Amino acid sequence: MTSVQTEQIRLFAKAPKTIVIGHISSFAVLLYLATKSSALPSGLLIAWAILELVLTPGLLLYMKIWAKDLPEEIPQQARWIGFLNALVCLVGTSWGMMLYLSLATDDPASFAMQMAIAAGSTAASVKSLGLFRWTFICYGIPYLGLLSLKLILLGGDFVALAVLVLIFLLMMLLLAKDVLASFMDYVAIKNENLDLIAQLQNANAQARLANREKTRLLASASHDLRQPVHAMGLHLETLSDSTLPEAAQKTVAHLRQSIRNLSNMFTSLLDISLLETGNFTFQTQVIDLAAFLKNIAEEFKPLADICEASIHIKCAPYWIESDPVLLRRIVQNLLSNALKYGGKGTVTLEITHTSNTLNLHVKDQGRGIAQKERTQIFEEFKRAATTPDHVQTQDSIGLGLAIVKKLCIPLHLDLDLHSSIKGSIFTVSGLKLGHAQAATPPETTLNNSLNGLHILIVDDDPDSLRASETLLAHWGARVSYAQSLYEVKPSDAPDLVLSDFSLGNGVTAFDVQEQINQQSPHPVPFIILSGETDPKIIDEIHTRGLLLIPKPVQPARLRAAIESQLARIRR
Length: 571
What we know:
Blueprint: H1 4-13, H2 18-37, H3 42-68, H4 74-102, H5 108-129, H6 135-154, H7 157-240, H8 246-277, E1 285-288, H9 289-299, H10 301-306, E2 310-314, E3 319-322, H11 324-341, E4 346-354, E5 357-363, H12 400-408, E6 414-420, E7 423-433, E8 454-458, H13 462-474, E9 478-482, E10 496-499, H14 509-519, E11 526-530, H15 535-543, E12 547-550, H16 555-570
Parallel strand pairs: 2-4, 8-9, 8-10, 10-11, 11-12
Antiparallel strand pairs: 1-3, 3-7, 4-5, 5-7, 6-7
Helix pairs in contact: 1-3, 2-3, 2-4, 2-5, 3-4, 4-6, 5-6, 5-7, 6-7, 7-8, 7-13, 8-12, 9-11, 11-12
Organism: Terasakiella brassicae
Catalytic activity: ATP + protein L-histidine = ADP + protein N-phospho-L-histidine
Coiled coil: 186-220
């Protein structure tokens, strides 16, 4: 909200300096005519010259400078306006006296110039002085009033001219009133617009806050639900390895797929929460792109089988520089989307080369995306209206493409969509080329059995603890467990530790690691299974060289992580 006085002073301060130039040139002409056609004392003319050619312009410039630095306080603004009124009243009186004493009635040319300057300077001042309620009155009445008085005193035909001058003055006063009214309307409209902008900004801020709270709440709920889902997944893995009738095996397989879908939903909720709060960190590495895409394609083969689709890769031996975790999420979400919505055809992952960058194209052979939906599908919790029947049973809550769009920003990638009735193509462009790296020798793995290995499980959630113990024992490991730091015994001496991060009462996996290392003569492999999302904690976990696997963990990934950690120690 801006006050009328503030706007008046601001506009006056922005008035062009040509006003001062016009004042000087006009008065210089009047002074010349007065010197030429009257017998005024030279001292008076010099005083007038100093007043109007030096002091008044200087004061006007000072007023403009003062206005720019004037605080928005009513007393100081009123003082400024009062000073302006006094100054223009002095100017109007001075100019009026000049015409009163030097009016060249005997010289038609000089008289015409004097009258023209009087009319012109008065009309020109309306635009700037009419912004204020009394300022133009303080200027115009002394100026044209003294001129009219002089004409009346001259008598004869000059009286009629005096009447015309007064009519002109009245017209200028009415014009100044209109200028002020228009200015007041302008201020009112500006304040309304400012109010609307403030309301929109407030509504936008509230919407953003609500959106952040929504994703935070969903992420929090996701975190709380991870424990039972994690336990369910481990129990089902144990059950799937048991001898079951064929019908029961099918039921277990469906349950495992449901658990994977639910786990993917939680991962999507966590991704969008981290992206909206700016807590996503990334680290650039050199990636073998062909192998990278092949690995992801293998991961999605079960989904492709369900969707009766196939995955085809067209990629030359390229190496790129990017964050493998974030880029993997981008490709996973695009590939998942293409398989679910692309129909029973081929989904192609194609790499094209442009200048110093690469482009990833994910092509499907579906029915395409309607024009009106091509923006909507990148919004959170939005899906295409034409959802295939088989998608209803998959982990589709409308976050995949929203995550892709947000992940492209920190990686400086562009995302484009081209769709027709023959299918859709999502293009991620801007992948930076990197230098080829020497192949990393494959890690040695253990035998399928974990017989003879002592694994300590530390988790304050009884369900997760019980599920982990059952599965690891089924895999042949010797298992001990603890629900708190105080239950970790010096005699445990584990070969590997699986620990949740937050163990209650301020105790964390770091405390468990320190206690285990104090008790063991050699470093013990340590894996943290947690739904922790705090980037500072995640960074510290990585700094300590610990492996973090987010809950709910897939049993196959847990098994691979255990074997990898133990193999690294045994080298």
